[in-house]
Design a protein that fits this description.
The protein is an alpha/beta fold and about 100 residues long. Helices cover about 40% and strands about 30% of the residues.
């Protein structure tokens, strides 16, 4: 996982798996970044696997951004991760 700044925005790049074992680390990073100014981009293009915990993270992060009036841009995963989002009707959350 990599967090970088492209003024004024923040980008959180996640790779590998977004699952029950990794979701708390990503969630903590999103929370820290969310306290700062600028748009947040969650880049999941390098995610190879995502389980229900990852899907909950995406839904919760999207909801939190809407409630706070902030923009969360989610760049969706490919492969199996994209298929999971498609099957669950969550493709509207990602670009």
């Amino acid at each position: 996982m990599l967090v970088r700044r492209e003024t004024p925005d923040w980008i959180l790049e996640v790779d590998g798996e977004l699952d029950i074992a990794t979701v708390s680390t990503v969630s903590d990073a999103l929370r820290r970044i969310g306290l700062l100014d600028g748009q947040v981009t969650l880049d999941l293009r390098a995610v190879e696997f995502m389980d229900v915990a990852g899907m909950h993270l995406l839904a919760d992060a999207h909801r939190a951004a809407e409630l706070s009036g902030r923009r969360l841009r989610i760049l969706g995963p490919g492969g199996a991760g994209a298929r999971v989002l498609e099957l669950t009707g969550m493709t509207h959350l990602v670009e």
